[in-house]
Amino acid sequence: MSPAFATAAAAAAPTHGFLSPTGVEVAFLLVGLATFGAALVTVTTRQLVHAALWLVATLGGLAVEYLLLTAEFIAWMQVLIYVGSVVVLLLFGLMLTKAPIGRSPDADSGNRLAALTVAVAAAAALVWVVVDAFRTTWIDLDGAASGSTKVTGASLFQNWVLPFEALSVLLLAALVGAIVLSRKAKADAANTGASAQAAPGSRSEKEGVR
Amino acid sequence: MHLAYPAVLSALLFCTGLYGVLARRNAILVLMSVELMLNAVNLNLVAFDVWLSRTARETLHSGQALTLFTIAIAAAEIGIGLAIILAVYRNRGTSDIDRLRDTAEGHDGDTPAAEKAEATA
């Protein structure tokens, strides 16, 4: 019993170690570094459109991480929904609010130091706790993919049907809510006349009316 | 793969998003940072789901189902958030959240005076 255990441990030891990382771990580490760098540029750049484009890099890197974790369906959903639609919506929002092209000096507010302190403290605490908790835990990535479309679809429509349908109702509510919000703004603009169309100047005029 | 890799990356991304939410001034940039935080949570959910489905033979795949739900809810949140920001921009002419202080406490005396000065200028 004990020689078998010893050989099993000896066989398992080289595959589970920090000093001999597997190819998947190296790839995960490199893509993770790129993703984290892109996220840092996203929250620190002064050019608003560049922030949206670096967000594309971050979300695409996360999709690659999902692929490395064998969650294929989530990865393609990430590419389709986040990179495809959410970033386009954000870019539309930036254009519609007349975001300045080029550097804008007031992209960051005055409490950057406090924000940096809070973020660094939270990062240190979280990383310490997580590394301490999962020091001896390994994910076994061999075998069949645990997140293929077949597996995910089967579990979604066997065990998660009711939340799935509730989610469709939520999406419908969000759609109707967005339409109502923009229609109401249009009605207000029509009531107050053409002065609301000149958006940057209309603030002072409205304040004066008030 | 060591479980600490995705967990640490997720924690770092979450704190990056936290910094963005606290330090950014444009409301759309704050929404981007919220997206970063949601994606960090998604990475955690996927990593722990893969781990549990292998070690504990968990077949419910709750992590991946919750990730799909989070992605859908984030899409709805972005739509509603952008509609609100556009409505605020049409009314006020700015999407700068430092200047939207109508419901702030403690500045009752000076805020109307400052806005009147802005309106007359």
TrEMBL record, chain A:
<dbReference type="InterPro" id="IPR001457">
    <property type="entry name" value="NADH_UbQ/plastoQ_OxRdtase_su6"/>
</dbReference>
<keyword id="KW-0520">NAD</keyword>
<feature type="transmembrane region" description="Helical">
    <location>
        <begin position="27"/>
        <end position="44"/>
    </location>
</feature>
<feature type="transmembrane region" description="Helical">
    <location>
        <begin position="160"/>
        <end position="181"/>
    </location>
</feature>
<keyword id="KW-1133">Transmembrane helix</keyword>
<comment type="similarity">
    <text>Belongs to the complex I subunit 6 family.</text>
</comment>
<keyword id="KW-0472">Membrane</keyword>
<feature type="transmembrane region" description="Helical">
    <location>
        <begin position="113"/>
        <end position="131"/>
    </location>
</feature>
<protein>
    <recommendedName>
        <fullName>NADH-quinone oxidoreductase subunit J</fullName>
        <ecNumber>7.1.1.-</ecNumber>
    </recommendedName>
</protein>
<keyword id="KW-1003">Cell membrane</keyword>
<comment type="function">
    <text>NDH-1 shuttles electrons from NADH, via FMN and iron-sulfur (Fe-S) centers, to quinones in the respiratory chain. Couples the redox reaction to proton translocation (for every two electrons transferred, four hydrogen ions are translocated across the cytoplasmic membrane), and thus conserves the redox energy in a proton gradient.</text>
</comment>
<keyword id="KW-0812">Transmembrane</keyword>
<feature type="transmembrane region" description="Helical">
    <location>
        <begin position="51"/>
        <end position="69"/>
    </location>
</feature>
<dbReference type="InterPro" id="IPR042106">
    <property type="entry name" value="Nuo/plastoQ_OxRdtase_6_NuoJ"/>
</dbReference>
<feature type="transmembrane region" description="Helical">
    <location>
        <begin position="75"/>
        <end position="101"/>
    </location>
</feature>
<dbReference type="Pfam" id="PF00499">
    <property type="entry name" value="Oxidored_q3"/>
</dbReference>
<keyword id="KW-0874">Quinone</keyword>
TrEMBL record, chain B:
<keyword id="KW-0812">Transmembrane</keyword>
<comment type="function">
    <text>NDH-1 shuttles electrons from NADH, via FMN and iron-sulfur (Fe-S) centers, to quinones in the respiratory chain. The immediate electron acceptor for the enzyme in this species is believed to be a menaquinone. Couples the redox reaction to proton translocation (for every two electrons transferred, four hydrogen ions are translocated across the cytoplasmic membrane), and thus conserves the redox energy in a proton gradient.</text>
</comment>
<dbReference type="InterPro" id="IPR039428">
    <property type="entry name" value="NUOK/Mnh_C1-like"/>
</dbReference>
<keyword id="KW-0472">Membrane</keyword>
<comment type="subunit">
    <text>NDH-1 is composed of 14 different subunits. Subunits NuoA, H, J, K, L, M, N constitute the membrane sector of the complex.</text>
</comment>
<keyword id="KW-1133">Transmembrane helix</keyword>
<feature type="region of interest" description="Disordered">
    <location>
        <begin position="100"/>
        <end position="121"/>
    </location>
</feature>
<keyword id="KW-0813">Transport</keyword>
<keyword id="KW-0874">Quinone</keyword>
<feature type="transmembrane region" description="Helical">
    <location>
        <begin position="65"/>
        <end position="89"/>
    </location>
</feature>
<dbReference type="Pfam" id="PF00420">
    <property type="entry name" value="Oxidored_q2"/>
</dbReference>
<dbReference type="InterPro" id="IPR001133">
    <property type="entry name" value="NADH_UbQ_OxRdtase_chain4L/K"/>
</dbReference>
<protein>
    <recommendedName>
        <fullName>NADH-quinone oxidoreductase subunit K</fullName>
        <ecNumber>7.1.1.-</ecNumber>
    </recommendedName>
</protein>
<keyword id="KW-1003">Cell membrane</keyword>
<comment type="similarity">
    <text>Belongs to the complex I subunit 4L family.</text>
</comment>
<keyword id="KW-0520">NAD</keyword>
<keyword id="KW-1278">Translocase</keyword>
